[in-house]
Amino acid sequence: MALPSLLISSLEQSGIRRVMTRAAEFPDAIHLEVGEPGFVTPRHITDAAHQAALDGFTGYTADVGLSSLRDALAQAATFYHGDETFPEEICVTVGGIGALFGGIRAVVDTDDEVLIPDPGWPNYAMVVEAAAARPVRYPLRAENHYLPDIDEIEAMLSERTHALIINSPSNPLGTVFPERLMQELVELTRRRDLWLISDEVYHRLLFEGEHNSAWRFHSGGRLIVVGSFSKTYAMTGWRVGYALAPPPVIELYAKIQEATVSNAATPSQKAAEAALLGPQDCVQAMLATYTRNREVAMEVLDQRGLEYLRPQGAFYIWVHVGREDTNTFVLELLEQKRVALAPGSTFGQEGRGWVRLSLAANVDDVREGVTRLADFLGDED
């Protein structure tokens, strides 16, 4: 049977998902391939969703989300991002991916070019292509500390370039943008009349330094900030994200969501509201675990003499394995050592020779997984 959509059928599935699917065939595998917090959702959040359902919060909401959640998000954005934010600048979405896709659809037309980071989350390319636009990768290189090079990005701009996607803290690199760089990126997009889409879903998961949000410098410009509850509060399955954007763009989000998902699930929105307004010690406890896991992973890597990038934020560690074909490498590692990792090449051409390890598992799995990786590389020598 002929597939009805050449556009969608041509999308390349993430290598992370391919490894996850293969790893499911090995019950004894150590899972370090997926960005999944190794915690259940905190009890006060789950209780709030349960009570909301009992209280009748089971119907539709406005396309852009519950007004009470948008109010809470405006307060949180003002506090965390350092610039006063209003509810009309917020849309509640179905996960962070909903905020990303909605933003692309709102500001990019067919055949427009969107600059995406390399290495960068595989879904950036997938979402841009699903919107019938064209992803163009800009490199993140060691000589520039794996941060965007303003001059190089500007040299890549064409008449078709309409948007630039950035990500801090970075998945997969763990890099965190300095204040000056973030400000320069906002200024670049303003000067060149581009949309800046800033993925900041890991903004509260920092090992070192401070988060510098693009929202702090936007001054009503062409900026969309993507956020999510998934990583911060261990709420991946609740599917709640949000976008910060100028009110005219939020109006476009409303149309996109009406045409695709209507609204994020109502009990999930009440859970997100409880997450924001409730105690935040759960976030610090999870971050403390990721920090300990980072130290354990780096200790093993240092002992075994393996090259890696010290993560400043998010919950991943980027490790050099010296094999260009990392798709084959991670499958061989899985079959021989029962460790599932994400292949670097799925994050772009600059990821060849590297793998990404999640630090969101339990500490014993992190230690054992990194040890088995080192053993496997030693066996190859």
Structure description:
The protein is of the alpha/beta class. The chain has two domains: 136 residues, Aspartate Aminotransferase, domain 1 (Alpha-Beta Complex); 235 residues, 3-Layer(aba) Sandwich (Aspartate Aminotransferase, domain 2). Helices cover 43% and strands 15% of the residues. It contains 13 helices and 13 strands. The strands form three sheets. The chain has a seven-stranded mixed sheet, sandwiched between helices. Strand 9 and strand 10 form a beta hairpin. Helix 2 packs parallel to helix 12, helix 3 crosses helix 10 and helix 5 crosses helix 6.
Outline:
Helices cover 43% and strands 15% of the residues.
Topology:
Layout: H1 6-9, H2 15-23, E1 30-31, H3 43-54, H4 67-81, E2 90-93, H5 95-107, E3 113-118, H6 122-130, E4 134-139, H7 150-156, E5 161-167, H8 179-191, E6 195-199, E7 223-228, E8 241-244, H9 247-260, H10 266-277, H11 281-304, E9 308-309, E10 316-320, H12 326-337, E11 339-340, E12 342-343, E13 354-358, H13 363-380
Parallel strand pairs: 1-11, 3-4, 3-5, 5-6, 6-7
Antiparallel strand pairs: 2-8, 7-8, 9-10, 10-13, 12-13
Helix pairs in contact: 2-12, 3-10, 4-10, 5-6, 5-9, 11-13
